[in-house]
């Protein structure tokens, strides 16, 4: 079972996936995108350059599993249960904690489009606009 969906990811493979996932342009494309096959094809190609041979389906499955596990641990921590942990929690927290909030904005043609705003603003930012 060399390249099947059941092949376990090594720690190095997960770290490579996280390094690609942490790039700002990748995070922006993944956030809120439902039809993301093209993004995962790109991620698989980037992983190939890093020496990780995974197809786009494996990358998407690992992405979804890591995100689900992260949210489960995060929810447990927010509920007071600090015993629940995962290996790459801090890496995922750095990636997922700054996901932009999507808001709908009306365009001039009457349709709505998603615009992104950052939740976290620096304390030195001047709020007068």
From TrEMBL:
Residues 112-129 have a biased composition (Polar residues). Pfam families: Myb_DNA-bind_4. The gene is Zscan20_2. This is ZSC20 protein. Residues 109-129 are annotated as: Disordered. Residues 7-95 form the Myb/SANT-like DNA-binding domain. InterPro entries: Myb_DNA-bind_4 (IPR044822).
């Amino acid at each position: 079972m060399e390249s099947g969906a059941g092949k376990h990811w090594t720690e190095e493979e997960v770290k490579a996936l996280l390094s690609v996932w942490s790039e700002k342009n990748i995070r922006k494309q993944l956030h809120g995108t439902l039809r993301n096959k093209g993004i995962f094809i790109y991620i698989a190609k980037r992983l190939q350059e890093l020496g990780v041979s995974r197809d786009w389906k494996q990358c998407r499955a690992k992405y979804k599993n890591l995100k689900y596990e992260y949210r489960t641990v995060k929810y447990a921590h927010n509920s007071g249960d600090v015993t629940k942990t995962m290996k790459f929690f801090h890496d995922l927290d750095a990636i997922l904690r700054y996901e932009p909030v999507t808001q709908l904005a009306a365009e001039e043609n009457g349709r709505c489009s998603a615009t992104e705003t950052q939740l976290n603003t620096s304390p030195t930012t001047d709020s007068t606009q």
